[in-house]
Write a structure and sequence with these properties.
The chain is α/β, with parallel strands linked by helices. Helices cover about 40% and strands about 20% of the residues. It contains four helices and four strands. The two termini are about 15 Å apart.
């Protein structure tokens, strides 16, 4: 399974990837929303993991791009310090989990 991991904080990316790769997933790291969008159009991802930064941010742009077209890629958001409001915001923006 091919998973894109989007996090603008590159210091956190290795931790996320370590957990996913130990579970057998093939991960591609991105910190730039445009680069991720281009990669996703070139070859579809099976899922996207986003470190949710909120609306009007790069993470929101990634989520919107994942929801374009007939092949809606499942999106998992990670919310560290935003609490319930950040979770609800990400889910209402279109995240799957």
């Amino acid at each position: 399974m091919r998973i894109a991991v989007f996090d603008t904080d590159v210091s956190e990316q290795p931790l996320i990837v370590q957990v996913l790769e130990k579970s057998g997933f093939d991960c591609n790291l991105y910190s730039d929303a445009t680069v991720l969008a281009d990669a996703g159009r070139a070859r579809r991802f099976d899922a996207i993991v986003i470190d949710w930064q909120g609306r009007a941010n790069a993470s929101d742009a990634v989520l919107r791009e994942a929801r374009v077209g007939p092949d809606r890629v499942p999106v998992l958001i990670l919310v560290a310090g935003g609490g319930d409001d950040a979770i609800l915001e990400g889910l209402s923006a279109g995240a799957a989990d």
